[in-house]
Amino acid sequence: MRNHKINNDEYFFNRSLTVYLILFAILILCSFPFVKRGVFSSEFITNLEREKALIDSMKIIYEKTIEEKEKYKENGQQLIVWDWVDFDGVGHFLKIPVDTSLLRKTRIKRNLISLNRFLPPLKRATEVYKQLDFSCDSISIIIANEFKNEIKKQNYNKNNHYIKSLELIVTAIQNIPYTLVLDGNETCPTSSNNRYYKNICEACPNGDGCCDDVGPFAVFSPLEFFIQKTGDCDTRSLFAFSVLSRLGIKSAVMVSFNEGHSVLGVESKGRSYDSEGAGLNGKKYALWELTAKGYRIGQGVKGNDWVSTLSN
Fold it and tell me: What angle do CA 153, 159, 163 make, to 5 degrees?
């Protein structure tokens, strides 16, 4: 019995050794494509150096931005910085100085808006958005031009990349975390749609910020959204419309009263999309969700009663 046991052990050892040798050979063979791609070659080192150079350059940009902010602050201005990555992984940067008093003046204008309380809901929404957009006309033109310059850097305008240009602007808005906006009838903190929102009026990383007493209609103006980066669905839709309309792009602020929601509408230009809505002017708009990252044009928007409230 003992000799038999030794023979079995030797057989098992030899068999195991064979298996390990085969696995090792497979591992070596599998490594060849990676070697060709530069994982173990000088190309890999070059890629690392390139990534390090990119990180270093971004660090320099941010350091310069901090210096610029201090400089503008001394001159009574605030430097607003937006940085984001689009659907293709391309990074973008936007910097616009504004007077520190501009935000306060815009808030006063918003709070002075008044409407006929007996207006139908759709007309009421249209008038609110129109007045908020008009109140920021001059600065909205500047913001739109900065987006236009960023589009030019990517050569989208020369190559007629209509969708790419739209995506550049939309991803900038989607990149900003969601903030719930309430009027004077509700207060933060609160819960909505099974989610808790903190009493912090800023763009929190988890998208659980909340701003209350935003009178009179719980909507921030385009300028307020640009500076504070706080806003929920209709604030974002209005900001996107404000930028796109000043770039000459046919768009609309779309609302669904059944869903209690607002999205951006973009002229479909004869194409069909899964999510669409109708304009008061008879146009068909592709719907675009702006409250979270990753949503593409005409995708993922629920509801079948979408109509435009403000369009160009």
Answer: 85
- Residue 276 to residue 288: CA distance in whole angstroms: 9
Residue-level pLDDT at 71: 72
Residue 279: what pLDDT? 84
Within the chain, which residues score under 50 in pLDDT? Answer: 1-17, 19-20, 23, 27-28, 31-40
Backbone angles phi, psi at 283, to 5 degrees: -75, 155
Instruction: Calculate the alpha carbon distances from 105 to 34, 95, 115, 298 in Å.
Output: 59, 21, 20, 36
Residue 42: per-residue pLDDT: 57
